[in-house]
């Protein structure tokens, strides 16, 4: 969530949607918290500020009401955002990262001298509607002063870029608003002088001198006085610097976002005589080379794009003649350059790579004062060559370039509003950060508008295709330089999504004109030509990617060649085979490697499944989904899995094979895990052991204990008979959890220990983590919290290593529970908050609810009943919506204890009675005991000591409690004892 005070008070969600904050006092409260951003504001200060010295009766309660309204507004817009308004000792604070508040972001940008980006954040006067309210006045004034400072820095930067004429005309309006800013006056005087208006420059100095004398009784500062003297004597230092590079064309606009590259390439040229800038079409190699060369004393540009490649290959003298003509030399070029010191910029050498390489070697060998800066889409591959791969622009630089070019095309247009920021970022991202594409797109804003432009980028080569420069022409040039085999491979690999490895390239590109053994070399050649991008996948394996624009161009060529359908079919079959191989490896020691591999290939796997579904190939779709089911589960992507199985079943209605059977079982299991409303499951009559286990596992988590035990017990028998160690371990893990719920602790421990040993034997880290978690819970039940902490820590480490996010969240929450039981509430709350954050990031709904329950239980044990109730009620709503009986039984018991601690016997009894009914329905003995203890508390409040004592004894018989969990029981027992005195 983002907050804005550089203009009218505003709040936006992360997706850019504006958040309504209703009520004048609620908005004023938010503004006051933003004034003190990150610092706690005492309640009495907020009351004074909001009611301006005339607080209402029960002012503290009125403030709490406004805080609650603000939290509700934020929460309604973005779940979890209520936590941003944090209760602090004696007050409240807004807990938002500095980058989420435009004023803080503005300050950081100004500190980095990024003035244009900083000023782009402003939407009007700071704290617009509160600028004159006492609590915001100083902050508003401070921000306005910083804004002027940014204007000054920007003016000086524009002056250095040579925009003196524009500044001379623009600055008077700014100075009318800020007439005493000597720094701005200095920029104006310099701009007037450099524009040849010396008399006006001196008059501008007299104006500021007179105003300072009249209003402040002081003279201009020493810098301004020295500037006047320099103007009077026409100091040469005030004149525009003469470019030492008089043989280069003068760019029509400033280079944006390339400061680091310019500095780096200049440094490289100081130590090396041949530097080649490589990069894809449209990345800005020529413009960058010109900027680098502009600082050189004797630099010459030789444009080679127009040199006929065939003629130059046949006769290298054609190339030499072009360079000699540009330099204006006669005779042998090598002799003419022998005693000269110069930088030669050879622009666009890729089509002349062979003759250019020979000539460069010859010239550098004979002319020691010569340096060469070449640009091309591939290296020259000669000794001594240093390469600089020109990257695409980063997000911020690309957006800045877009805005500047839009402003050039449509003077006065505003493209810096927050409403446009995300749209601009999306356009630049889709155009791969290529300066050429961004500049062409910016020019289209004049006729199409930003949103229409963004909507039409799928057809980018027509959209950006008129005038002297076109995106298509840039890519046509690269295409024409390829041989037939290179063209075939490039267009065929364009069916890959999110990159590809050599195995995928061989699977989709081999065919007419290309044999499999040639593909690795061809891919390498395309990478050298900047048409493919080599990347490492994070596990040390090399992959190749295509910029979106390159992929779009290659796909057009694929369609023209009539190969699109065949390549897409080969792609889908390759990735279905890959998924099948992964499914066999995900339950053993290669688990980590294959999880990572499937993560990397997610986009390709989705594209393959979409292709099968679109063409009604139900068999292929079911095979792929069946192979990916366990991967989706391990990654916690239940909704994606359910949706994919459903789509596959819909197009495979007439199939009746094992793949369809698997899909039906998976769908039923996912509906149980996600508590989805579903019709009676359409399941096969005969289930395999793994299908039996999967259904039982899912139903155990959804609270259907008897059915789960029957299914998993049946699966276990089959697994043992077949010698399936993975299946045996998995079944024991489920049965161990159910034994714990039934209070059979010794049985649960034996099953967990055997399951752990088997999981380690087969190398299954998921099974190991599950077993460690259950053993940790058993240690908690025994009251051995140190051992429990070690076990949960080991389970967490194992799950984190494989990024098994559902298990990670569960183990973090379990560690939070251990910390709470040992009364380390600070650590407990931090762990639960971490679990909540990870679960939200991974869209793991149950993990979010589990963490909320933990936070609520921890808050109750600390006596923070309001905070406890807030968290528990959210969990209650989620469990009721999901139909999760065991979870709801526990949450209701916790809410019952909250009511009891408040002295509300009726509410406590109602909560615990519902909890007891649910616990008995789920056959969860521990939950039954907890609800009975709660009913004892309600009876003790009602004065029925005998009933309370009987209930406590009944609960104790069901499950004895370790000392750390006896807090509620001891409190109730003490109340019973007091009532009997």
Textual characterization of the structure:
The protein has 981 residues and is mainly alpha-helical. Among the domains are: 2-141, Orthogonal Bundle (Arc Repressor Mutant, subunit A), CATH 1.10.10.10; 162-238, Serine Threonine Protein Phosphatase 5, Tetratricopeptide repeat (Alpha Horseshoe), CATH 1.25.40.10; 259-389, 3-Layer(aba) Sandwich (Rossmann fold), CATH 3.40.50.300; 395-476; 481-670, no CATH class. The chain is built from 47 helices and twelve strands. Helix 1 packs across helix 2. The longest helix is centred in the N-terminal third of the chain and has 27 residues, at 134-160. The radius of gyration is 36 Å and the shape is flat. The model has no long low-confidence stretch (mean pLDDT 87).
Helix-strand blueprint:
Blueprint: E1 2-4, E2 10-12, H1 24-35, E3 41-42, H2 43-51, H3 59-77, E4 85-88, E5 91-94, H4 102-111, H5 115-119, H6 134-160, H7 164-177, H8 182-194, H9 198-216, H10 222-232, H11 259-271, E6 274-278, H12 285-293, E7 299-303, H13 309-314, H14 317-327, H15 333-337, E8 342-347, H16 353-366, E9 370-376, E10 385-389, H17 395-409, H18 418-430, H19 435-448, H20 450-455, H21 460-463, H22 471-480, H23 484-493, H24 502-509, H25 519-528, E11 533-536, E12 542-545, H26 548-560, H27 564-585, H28 591-600, H29 602-614, H30 618-634, H31 638-651, H32 658-673, H33 689-701, H34 705-722, H35 725-741, H36 745-762, H37 765-782, H38 785-802, H39 805-821, H40 825-841, H41 845-861, H42 865-882, H43 885-901, H44 905-922, H45 925-941, H46 945-958, H47 967-979
Parallel strand pairs: 6-9, 6-10, 7-8, 8-9
Antiparallel strand pairs: 1-2, 3-5, 4-5, 11-12
Helix pairs in contact: 1-2, 1-3, 6-8, 7-8, 8-9, 8-10, 9-10, 11-12, 17-18, 17-19, 23-24, 23-25, 23-26, 24-27, 27-29, 27-30, 29-30, 30-31, 30-32, 31-32, 32-33, 33-34, 33-35, 34-35, 35-36, 35-37, 36-37, 37-38, 37-39, 38-39, 39-40, 39-41, 40-41, 41-42, 41-43, 42-43, 43-44, 43-45, 44-45, 45-46, ...
């Amino acid at each position: 969530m983002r907050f804005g005070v550089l203009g009218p008070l505003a709040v936006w969600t992360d997706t850019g949607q504006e958040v309504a904050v209703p009520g004048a006092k609620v908005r004023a409260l938010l503004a006051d918290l933003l004034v003190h951003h990150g610092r706690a504001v005492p309640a009495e200060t907020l009351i004074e500020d909001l009611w301006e010295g005339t607080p209402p009766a029960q002012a503290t309660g009125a403030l709490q009401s406004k805080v609650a309204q603000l939290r509700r507004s934020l929460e309604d817009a973005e779940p979890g955002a209520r936590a941003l308004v944090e209760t602090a000792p004696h007050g409240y604070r807004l807990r938002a990262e500095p980058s989420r508040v435009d004023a803080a972001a503005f300050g950081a940008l100004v500190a980095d001298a990024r003035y244009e980006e900083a000023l782009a954040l402003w939407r009007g006067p700071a704290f617009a509607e509160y600028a004159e309210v006492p609590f915001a006045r100083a902050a508003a004034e401070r921000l306005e002063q910083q804004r002027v400072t940014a204007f000054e820095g920007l003016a000086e930067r524009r002056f250095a870029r040579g925009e003196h004429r524009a500044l001379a005309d623009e600055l008077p309006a700014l100075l009318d608003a800020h007439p005493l800013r000597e720094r701005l006056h200095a920029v104006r005087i310099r701009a007037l002088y450099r524009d040849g208006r010396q008399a006006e420059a001196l008059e501008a100095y007299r104006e500021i001198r007179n105003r300072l004398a009249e209003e402040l009784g002081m003279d201009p500062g020493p810098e301004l006085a020295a500037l006047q003297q320099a103007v009077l004597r026409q100091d040469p230092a005030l004149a525009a610097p003469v470019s030492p590079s008089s043989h280069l064309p003068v760019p029509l606009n400033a280079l944006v976002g390339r400061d680091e590259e310019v500095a780096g390439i200049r440094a490289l040229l100081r130590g090396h005589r041949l530097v080649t800038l490589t990069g894809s079409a449209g990345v800005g190699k020529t413009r960058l080379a010109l900027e680098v060369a502009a600082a050189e004393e004797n630099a010459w540009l030789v444009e080679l794009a127009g040199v006929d490649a065939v003629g130059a290959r046949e006769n290298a003298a054609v190339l030499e003649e072009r360079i000699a003509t540009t330099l204006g030399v006669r005779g042998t070029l090598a002799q003419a350059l022998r005693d000269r010191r110069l930088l030669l910029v050879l622009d666009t050498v890729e089509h002349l790579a062979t003759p250019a390489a020979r000539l460069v070697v010859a010239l550098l060998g004979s002319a020691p004062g010569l340096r060469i800066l070449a640009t091309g889409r591939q290296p020259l591959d000669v000794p001594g060559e240093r390469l600089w791969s020109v990257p695409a622009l980063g997000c911020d630089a690309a957006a800045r370039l877009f805005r500047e070019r839009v402003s050039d095309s449509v003077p006065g247009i505003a493209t810096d509003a927050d409403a446009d920021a995300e749209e601009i970022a999306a356009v630049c991202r889709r155009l791969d950060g290529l300066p050429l594409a961004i500049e062409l797109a910016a020019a289209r804003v004049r006729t199409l508008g930003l949103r229409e432009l963004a909507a039409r980028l799928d057809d980018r080569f027509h959209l950006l295709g008129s005038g002297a420069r076109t995106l298509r022409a840039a890519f046509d040039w690269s295409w024409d330089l390829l041989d037939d085999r290179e063209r075939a491979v490039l267009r065929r690999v364009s069916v890959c999504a999110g990159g590809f490895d050599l195995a995928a390239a061989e699977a989709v590109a081999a065919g007419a004109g290309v044999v499999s053994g040639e593909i690795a070399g061809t891919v390498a050649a395309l990478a050298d030509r900047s048409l493919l991008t080599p990347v490492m996948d994070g596990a040390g394996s090399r992959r190749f990617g295509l910029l979106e624009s390159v992929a779009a161009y290659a796909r057009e060529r694929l369609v023209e060649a009539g190969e699109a359908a065949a390549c897409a079919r080969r792609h889908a079959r390759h990735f279905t085979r890959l998924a099948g191989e992964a499914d066999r490896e995900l339950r053993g020691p290669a688990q980590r490697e294959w999880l990572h591999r499937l993560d990397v290939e997610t986009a390709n796997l989705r594209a393959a499944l979409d292709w099968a579904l679109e063409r009604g190939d139900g068999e292929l779709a079911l095979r792929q989904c069946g192979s990916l089911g366990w991967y989706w589960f391990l990654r916690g992507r239940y909704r994606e899995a359910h949706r994919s199985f459903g789509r596959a079943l819909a197009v495979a209605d007439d199939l009746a094979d094992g793949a369809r059977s698997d899909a039906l079982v998976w769908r039923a299991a996912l509906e149980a895990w996600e508590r989805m409303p579903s019709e009676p499951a359409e399941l096969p009559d005969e289930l395999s052991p793994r299908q039996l286990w999967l259904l039982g596992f899912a139903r155990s988590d959804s609270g259907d204990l008897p059915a789960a035990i029957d299914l998993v017990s049946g699966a276990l028998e089959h697994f043992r008979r077949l010698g399936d160690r993975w299946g045996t371990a998995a079944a024991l893990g489920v049965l161990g959890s159910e034994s714990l719920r039934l209070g059979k602790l010794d049985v649960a421990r034996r099953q967990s220990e055997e399951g752990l040993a088997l999981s380690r034997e087969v190398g299954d880290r998921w099974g190991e983590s599950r077993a460690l978690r259950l053993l940790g819970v058993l240690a908690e039940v025994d009251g051995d919290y140190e051992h429990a902490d070690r076990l949960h820590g080991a389970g967490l480490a194992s799950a984190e290593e494989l990024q098994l996010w559902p298990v990670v969240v569960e183990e973090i929450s379990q560690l939070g529970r251990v910390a709470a039981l040992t009364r380390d509430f600070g650590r407990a709350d931090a762990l639960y908050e971490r679990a909540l954050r990870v679960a939200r990031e991974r869209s793991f709904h149950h993990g979010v609810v589990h963490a909320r329950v933990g936070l609520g239980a921890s808050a109750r044990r600390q006596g923070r009943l309001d905070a406890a109730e807030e968290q528990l009620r959210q969990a209650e709503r989620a469990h009721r919506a999901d139909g999760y009986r065991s979870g709801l039984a526990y949450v209701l018991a916790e809410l019952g204890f909250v009511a009891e601690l408040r002295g509300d016997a009726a509410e406590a009894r109602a909560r615990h009675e519902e909890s007891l009914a649910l616990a008995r329905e789920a056959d969860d003995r521990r939950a039954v005991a907890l609800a009975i203890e709660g009913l004892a508390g309600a009876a003790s409040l009602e004065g029925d000591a005998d009933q309370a004592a009987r209930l406590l004894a009944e609960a104790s018989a069901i499950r004895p409690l370790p000392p750390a969990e006896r807090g509620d029981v001891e409190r109730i027992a003490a109340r019973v004892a007091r009532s009997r005195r």
